[in-house]
Specification:
This protein is an all-alpha fold and about 230 residues long. The protein has two domains: about 5-65, Arc Repressor Mutant, subunit A; about 65-225, Orthogonal Bundle (Tetracycline Repressor, domain 2), CATH 1.10.357. It contains twelve helices and no strands. The protein has helices at about 5-25, 35-40, 45-50, 55-65, 70-80, 85-100, 105-110, 120-130, 140-145, 150-160, 170-190, 200-215. Helix 1 (about 5-25) packs across helix 4 (about 55-65), helix 9 (about 140-145) runs antiparallel to helix 10 (about 150-160) and helix 10 runs antiparallel to helix 11. The longest helix has 25 residues, at about 5-25. The radius of gyration is 19 Å and the shape is globular. The mean pLDDT is about 85.
């Protein structure tokens, strides 16, 4: 695709995403349709399908727009930690805060079946919104651009291995277990399977994640982990 066509495509995507954001803010994600977004953007639904494979594709791109506060706050949360493990736990606090505030948004991004390569959707989104990542350390950029949340965690936990906090063989299982904790709590919270308030869901998730982490931290290093935000 030549540069001119790429610029035109990016411009059209922004028109539709601006319209989609307005629909979500006014009516909620569950009430968003391709037709509503196209009408608001001043185009036909058939034109929208030239840029989005289906409604789930459009929902994903639009939902990513609502993660800007999480992304902007993440470095500040991580800065509260005095070591790699604490930084990762603070990053979990930031993620839980925003995901349980906007469960519909975060479930689309990290839980729903989108019927296509989610990594490609992440890459496409950040190709258009590359300025969203300006100023972030390279390590955080690589984490934010990884669609698989378990892999996101593993990327960061690797630093804890290098720092002597966690053994290499525990990286993947820790990443998977903490992701399953969040998904399980998010599903429970969204479907009202228990009477958790938002704050209770956040604290319970952080407690379980922290317990899971502490079980694999080397005994000689556990006293260095002072995270207690739950």
């Amino acid at each position: 695709m030549n540069e001119r066509k790429e610029l035109q495509r990016a411009r059209m995507l922004r028109y539709f995403l601006d319209a989609a954001s307005e629909v979500i803010e006014e009516e909620g994600l569950a009430h968003m349709t391709i037709r509503k977004v196209a009408d608001r953007a001043g185009y036909t639904a058939s034109t929208a399908y030239n840029y989005f494979k289906d409604l789930s594709h459009l929902k994903f791109f639009a939902s990513m727009r609502f993660t800007s506060e999480y992304i902007s706050e993440l470095p500040d949360y991580m800065a509260l930690g005095e070591n790699t493990v604490e930084k990762w736990l603070y990053s979990w606090e930031c993620f839980c805060k925003h995901s349980f505030e906007q469960p519909d948004i975060y479930s689309v991004i990290f839980m729903d079946n989108l019927g296509t390569s989610t990594q490609q959707l992440f890459d496409d989104y950040y190709a258009i919104h590359e300025n969203d990542l300006i100023g972030f350390p390279e390590q955080i950029q690589s984490i934010l651009m990884e669609h698989d949340f378990s892999k996101r965690s593993a990327l960061y936990i690797q630093s804890a291995v290098e720092g002597g906090f966690i053994k290499q063989e525990n990286v993947d299982i820790l990443a998977d277990m903490t992701l399953m904790i969040w998904k399980g709590m998010m599903n429970t919270y969204m479907n009202h399977r228990r009477s958790y308030t938002k704050d209770e869901a956040i604290k319970r998730t952080l407690h379980l994640v922290t317990e899971c982490v502490m079980n694999v931290v080397e005994p000689s290093r556990r006293k260095e982990i002072k995270f207690d935000r739950y």
